[in-house]
Amino acid sequence: MEGLAAFGAALLALATPTALFHVAWSTLLGIVVGSLPGLTATMGVALLTTLTYQLDADTAILVLICLYVGAIYGGSRSAILLNIPGTPASAATALDGYPLARAGRAGEAMAIATTGSALGTLVGIVLLVMLAPPLADAALGFGSFEYFWLAVFGIVISGRLTGGASPLKGYIAGVLGLMVAMVGADGIHAHVRFEMGIDGMSGGIGLIPAMVGAFGFAEVLTVMFRPRAALDHQGDARQRVLPRFAVVFANRVNVLRSGVIGTLVGIIPGVGEDIGAWASYAAARRASKRPQEYGQGSIEGLTAAETGNSAVVPGALIPALTLAVPGSAPAAVLIAALYIHGIRPGPMIMIEQPDFIYSVAAMLVFATLAILVFGLSLTRAFVQILRVPRETLMPIVFVLCVIGPYALTQRTFDIAVMVAFGLIGFALRRMDYPMAPLVLGIILGDLLDKSLRRGLTLSDGSLEPFFTRPVSLLFALLTLAAVLASVPAVRRLGARLTQRLVRRGSPPAGGDA
Amino acid sequence: MSAMGPDTGNAARNDRITAVVLFALGLAMLAGGVFMDRLEVRRIHPASIPGLVPMLLGVTLALCAVILYRGAGAVAPRDGPSDDASLSADAPSGSVPPANPASGAPPVHAGREADSWGRLIGAGLWSVVYALLLVGTFPFAIATAIYLFGFVAGFGWRAAGEGGSRAALLVKAGVLAIVASAAIATLFSEGFLVRLP
Question: Does the pLDDT of residue A273 top 70, yes or no?
């Protein structure tokens, strides 16, 4: 009840003309960023962070969250019209959205994507308000031992889930991120490590220049490498742009299921919106009475994908706010932005700023309303945005990648960091190394380092508490299970055991043929 | 990433080369941790030496590199939504394979591959020259205007020759360079009070 009152108060506090103005422009900017192939939500949030450091904390967080929500939603535009997801989060959207557009139903597809995104975010907001305070409470009992395993678990699970066919590459990306975090003064004795005689290195590698490089410059290179896409369905957008209530109502279970799945995927450290979309899509397909329509222009599939990816946004903020562990790459930048603006995410947030989680939930509500309004009213305008040629857009993006990180610290060293991470990020992407574990590694490196050494100091060098305290043991077992599950031999053994169990439990062959 | 990804043979070779580089990096990290100052003069607890985690990370990376080398080529190239688009949280947008390959965006064919590499190298080099050489040598607004003009004119040149007018392209590039560089420089120097490089 107390939470509900705080949430209501946060909604009222945000309902001012100034706040609504910020909601409007930042969500609109987010939709534009998301809809343009080559501009991702992470890049947008990272670049905007560099532009908001002079705003007051509440306004800065508001515009960053609105941009995040808008960008994840905006990716559906190009996914539907070009078959190229504006952000990776909309990859599943393209699967059914593009066939709908080809069938002359682009307007309807965009309306469904808008409604799905809005409803998905709302489901996620409800779960955020319900889950974040108790999680923060529980995390208050965490010590160095638990935080060490939480950091290890975050890296391993992120590597496992984003590494695709090769989880090893996900783990390697995570270890590389942790290694980057080792550069600079250590968190316990302030001893400078691996500065290699370069002045700028003694302060460590900044997260923002690294992320702007890995997601901005690398993206510019990727877009320039790719063949040009043709916008050949713009005419279709002139059709119906409002969703039919009957269609929305028929998908109520689908929306709820996808929203819950998306939020839960968001809570898993460093996984992100695209997996939320695919997990929701797969679950909807399994539960569907018409699975054969999936991939051919299924309304259910489109709804599940858009609801799932948008629900990840509030989900990803749950661990970001309560544990300072990001649920997605854009949430990692948001954590950096919170620190820049003097807000310390983590378990103490419910003690130091008890209303902040509710304020974030209220910001998400306003962002959701904004995507609903803009998404349904500006469908035709967004089609024009997709016509901006990449030769015009990409150099401007790169200029912002250069000046953005520089503006934060006024160090030319950060420009070099951005360039280095852009080139390395592009090469790693080409070889199928995911970027999310790398980013998570940079964020969690300090936590892992400090927690291990502090824990060992507390236990006088004994490893026992790392394996005997209940939460530590749980994280250790989860980490071990995640690693073992990525070993092919263990997977084969598991599949064989499952088959045997299923055979034992099923009726004799031909029994119900 | 199937549209622009390397084939299995190339992927295996790339993995082996990467594994060697990663192994060397792991060993370097391990050595860095081992030889790092143990701060005995400050009488810190031996378990809290600054080199501890770098040592562990070095060993882990070297181990991963060995596994990568041994398994190079064993993993099928990623294909389809479940393995590529779905599981690469931050794969570049647009690198996702088309939903329906028969109807989707065109894949990169051999002829286009050379074009793609040309654009990539050109864009990469010009951008690096701008970020590391032009910025700092010239005032920011001028460096930015040079970069924008070069980029827009350079990458639009061939297309303008095929269908449109190259003179119009140069005018467009010039206008964009002046307007965008002035706007960005003013925004940061006047709006955010940043002392531009």
Answer: yes
Q: What is the DSSP letter of A232?
A: -
- Judge whether B115 and B106 are in contact, CB under 8 Å: no
Q: Domain residues for A468?
A: 2-501
For chain A, percent helix, then strand, then coil, each to nearest 5?
75, 0, 25
The residue to which tokens 């990803």 are assigned: A316
List Cα–Cα distances, B43 to A189, B48, B104, in angstroms: 11, 10, 65
* Predicted confidence (pLDDT) per residue in B95-130, tens digit: 334 444 333 444 446 667 788 899 999 999 999 999
Helix (H, G, I), strand (E, B) or coil at A32: helix
Torsion-angle region of A396 (φ positive above 0: left; ψ -120 to 50: alpha; else: beta) = alpha
Contacts of B94 in chain A (CB under 8 A): 37-38, 84-85, 222-223, 226, 229
Q: What is the ipTM of this complex?
A: 0.83
Q: Which residues contact B7 (CB under 8 A, 6 or more apart)?
A: B77
When divided into structural domains, chain A yields a total of 1
- Check CB contact of A221 with chain B, cutoff 8 Å: yes
**Helices of type H across B49-104:** 52-71
Q: Which residues pair with B138 in a beta bridge?
A: B135
* Residue A474 covered by a domain: yes
3-state secondary structure (DSSP) of residue A383: helix
Please name the residues in contact with A348: beta carbons below 8 A apart, sequence gap of 6 or more: A140
Identify the H or E element spanning A124. helix A106-139
DSSP state of A185: E
For residue A193, which phi and psi values (nearest 5 degrees)?
Answer: -115, 145
- Paired with A193 in beta bridges are A184
Indicate left, alpha or beta for A284 from its phi (over 0: left) and psi (-120 to 50: alpha).
alpha
pLDDT tens for each residue of A212-244: 898 889 989 988 888 766 555 554 545 556 777
Largest CA distance in chain A: 76
Helix (H) or strand (E) holding B130: none
Interface contact A186, partner B, CB < 8 A: yes
Q: At what angle do helices A91-102 and A273-287 cross, to 10 degrees?
A: 60
CB-CB neighbors (< 8 A) of B132 in chain A: 415-416, 419
User: Residue A69 is encoded by which pair of tokens?
Assistant: 């929500």
Cα B73 to its chain centre, rounded Å, is 24
Measure the CA–CA gap between A424 and A428, rounded to whole angstroms: 6
Chain A residue closest in CA terms to B173? A392
Asked, for residue A510, whether it belongs to a domain, the answer is: no
Query: Would the CB atoms of A431 and B144 count as touching at under 8 Å?
Result: no
